[in-house]
Design a protein that fits this description.
heterodimer; A: alpha/beta; Spore Coat Polysaccharide Biosynthesis Protein SpsA, Chain A; eight-stranded mixed sheet; 13% strand; disordered C terminus; B: alpha+beta; 2 domains; four-stranded mixed sheet; 7 helices; 4 strands
């Protein structure tokens, strides 16, 4: 039993270290090629762009979102904004009427059908060269669109460009640790972009050449993670997805553990389901890094985290049972006996401990690189510790729940989550 | 049809090489530190062995003279700290590790030697020690864990009690000899007190009934100590009162 456990532990830690080093090597190798935009960015040409904003019960944030889009530094006659009300039950529709006279804005209303149907409605009604969508809880940096389009201009092979998502105004601990996580994602996503292994084109202003949809078809429901499915479909067909680290999009993060939990169950559930749908590309070399590296890494991460969690849980239970037996046998005589003398002999020298230390060092390096990319300074902060500790405790729960849901096909809906986030 | 960039196989191999190097280094460092620990334990055992031999020799030399001259150099406290190091090594390095097993055999032999010597000293010089031989099993013996707690607690309570623990399944002829001498059954845990075997779990109260002399002596000792303390406290207060009165 012990040796089986040790072998599993070694396999997982080997794979986890491999993944971290792979990121690091790719990043160090290609970091010189990361393009940072100058303050005054000028494009050779300004192609037409459509941005679709799917709305479901967003009366409180939608005006701010649209205003941020209107202040984008981009020629007004080249930019169309489609506000699609997906059958909201609140006053979203009447709220967005303030924009009805704006020539850049088109208002659409439809019966509730899910986020992908709202975006697809906008897709049907546009013939611009580029298409993006923006979640209605996010705001854009005024240079974001130009910086994204510069990527398309310099690289004709780029078919989609994903921006940097930053947590807007993090207030409590749940949001602060997500900020740490999103900063790290700037590093991991940029590196995936550099190696050509992006597995998702997230909701906040991922931008596509319109012909991607003409050739591959519109968004699909895809277990309520249409942004993951779109990216996998593109990867399957060899469409390049890049990442623009200085196109900033600010998003409202879930501010409580239960809301974060629901969001992550949906993400992981979507990942598992889409992975099953696209299992044909897994480990096939013709589909590139997404099939050989990104998707396998996701599987390792889910099972690795669950494995570590079960181990810790098992040890805690074992400790409690032993203490219980001790108390039952000899009473409380030893319970408060803490006069342990420190001796180097009793410091663990298991190889497993070294691997865990190496792994944590690599995670902290990733966090520091992410912070450097996000703020320009690689300074250490305590929120990184909180992130590591809190996420190691709560992440296994949403992973287990997502696996459970995936096995029994219980979907968590986008509209349901929206309703909860707005409450 | 769009095409992926060609796969960068070189990178996959380089990363594999780096990761393997880290792993091999980790295993090597762990091995190196473990062997240092094993050496440390072996050194302690050598030292105890030397001390035991010296005590034995001293006893043989002096047995015709007086019991007062037997210095109490036999090292039960060092033996028990050694026990915790060996049991930690079993967890940290592995129960089946050849070095750990050999350390454990050495330790068991030292215990037996200590037991024989102490028994001789006790018999000759009328000391009041009582010996418990404790046989435990390593696998799935929950009562052994409980018995361990009981014996640790008892030996802290009664300093005159000397507990020697033996792994019943350890492949050591001296242990096999003890098992056959005392007819210890394989129904573990089992304890031997004054040559009699008690198998199965025995609670604190049950064992205390088997060692009435030790319990009584300890009670008397504690009473005397309490009286002395009371007297000292009285003296102190009267001294204080005297100084106040002056």
């Amino acid at each position: 039993m012990d040796s089986v456990y040790t072998i599993i532990f070694y396999v997982f830690s080997f794979l986890a270290v491999y993944i971290q080093i792979f990121f690091l090597v790719t990043f160090l190798d290609k970091r010189k090629t990361i393009k940072w935009s100058p303050a005054e960015l000028v494009l050779d040409s300004y192609p037409t762009v459509t941005i679709a904003v799917p709305i479901y019960n967003e009366e409180r944030t939608i005006v701010k979102t649209v205003e941020s889009l209107l202040s984008l530094d981009y020629p007004k006659d080249k930019l169309k904004i489609f506000l699609v009300d997906d059958g909201s039950k609140d006053n979203s529709w009447s709220t967005i009427q303030v924009f009805k006279d704006n020539p850049s804005i088109v208002l659409l209303q439809k019966e509730n059908g899910g986020k992908h149907t709202a975006i697809n409605l906008a897709l049907e009604k546009t013939d611009s060269e580029f298409f993006a969508c923006l979640d209605s809880d996010s705001f854009v940096h005024d240079q974001a669109l130009k910086r994204i389009l510069k990527y398309f201009e310099t690289d004709p092979k780029a078919m989609a460009v994903v921006p940097s998502v930053i947590i807007y105004n993090p207030k409590n601990i749940v949001q602060i640790i997500q900020k740490v996580e999103y900063d790290m994602a700037i590093y991991t996503k940029k590196t995936l972009g550099l190696m050509g292994g992006m597995q998702t084109t997230p909701g906040p202003l991922s931008t596509f050449r319109k012909k991607v949809f003409d050739e591959l078809g519109p968004y699909r429901k895809a277990h309520n993670t249409e942004d993951q499915e779109m990216a996998l479909r593109m990867q399957e067909h060899g469409y390049k997805i890049d990442y623009c680290p200085d196109a900033y999009i600010y998003t409202n993060a879930p501010h409580s553990v239960s809301k974060l939990y629901r969001q992550r169950v949906r993400w992981i559930y979507g990942f598992i389901k889409n992975l099953i749908d696209y299992r044909r590309i897994l480990f096939k070399k013709k589909y590139g890094p997404v099939a050989l590296f990104t998707l396998p890494s996701g599987i390792v991460a889910i099972f690795g985290i669950i494995f570590i969690f079960t181990t810790i849980f098992y040890n805690i239970i074992k400790f409690i049972i032993n203490k219980y037996i001790e108390i039952q046998t000899i009473g409380f005589a030893h319970f408060f006996n803490f006069n342990y003398k420190f001796e180097w002999f009793f410091v663990s020298t298991k190889a497993a401990l070294f691997f865990s230390i190496i792994l944590y060092i690599l995670v902290i390096v990733s966090l520091l690189i992410g912070r450097k990319l996000s703020t320009g300074k690689a300074n250490f902060s305590f929120s990184m510790f909180y992130y590591i500790i809190i996420f190691s405790v709560i992440a296994p729960f949403w992973m287990l729940r997502a696996i459970y849901n995936a096995i029994f096909s219980k979907e968590s809906s986008w509209t349901f989550e929206r309703r909860v986030i707005n409450n | 049809m769009h095409q992926h960039e060609p796969n960068d196989w070189k990178k996959y191999v380089i990363v594999l090489f780096i990761t393997s190097t880290i792993f091999i280094s980790g295993l090597w460092i762990s091995n190196y530190l473990n062997s240092k620990k094993i050496n440390q334990v072996r050194n302690i055992e050598d030292k105890i062995s030397l001390d035991l031999m010296s005590s034995e020799t001293q006893f043989n030399l002096l047995q015709e003279i007086s019991c007062k001259d037997i210095s109490n150099t036999v090292l039960s406290s060092e033996l028990s700290s050694l026990a915790s190091k060996i049991s930690y090594s079993e967890n940290n390095i592995g129960v089946e590790n050849v070095d750990v097993v050999s350390l454990k055999k050495y330790y068991s032999l030292l215990e037996i030697k200590d037991y024989i010597l102490m028994k001789r000293i006790t018999d000759r010089c009328g000391q009041k020690s009582v010996f418990i031989l404790y046989f435990y099993g390593n696998d799935n013996c929950q009562d052994c864990t409980k018995q361990g707690y009981v014996l640790t607690s008892l030996s802290e309570k009664y300093p005159n009690l000397r507990v020697y623990s033996f792994d019943y399944n350890l492949d050591l002829s001296a242990i096999r000899a003890m098992i056959s001498i005392y007819k210890v059954p394989n129904n573990l845990p089992a304890i031997v007190i004054n040559g009699k075997v008690y198998s199965g779990f025995n609670s604190i109260e049950a064992i205390e009934k088997l060692i009435p002399d030790v319990v009584r002596d300890r009670a008397i000792e504690l009473k005397q100590k309490a009286l002395l303390e009371e007297k000292a406290a009285k003296d102190k207060t009267s001294l204080k009162n005297d100084t106040k009165n002056q």
